[in-house]
Write a structure and sequence with these properties.
Elements (H helix, E strand, L loop, with lengths): L1 H26 L7 H27 L19
Helix pairs in contact: 1-2
Length: about 80
């Protein structure tokens, strides 16, 4: 279960970083051509990460040591 908890901590950090990046993009008076595609990628990755976060939290609450149902395809554009 500690592996799930460490993954959850990692996912939370990624979510916070992406939400901060999205907030900075929206602070501008306009969104240019470069930011708009990035914003789309941020939103897609956040959707995936929030799903994974909910799955991890549920598995931890159930006392499991691994995810019983893995999330759909992993998001690769933001990995690494």
């Amino acid at each position: 279960m500690s592996d799930l908890k460490s993954r959850l901590i990692e996912i939370n950090a990624k979510i916070e970083a992406l939400e901060e990046e999205r907030r900075i993009i929206y602070e501008d008076s306009h969104v240019d051509e470069f930011e708009h595609p990035r914003l789309s990628l941020i939103n897609e990755e956040l959707e995936h990460l929030w799903d994974l976060k909910r799955r991890l939290e549920a598995a931890i609450s159930a006392g499991l040591s691994e995810l019983p149902v893995p999330p759909p395809e992993t998001f690769e554009a933001g990995d690494g």
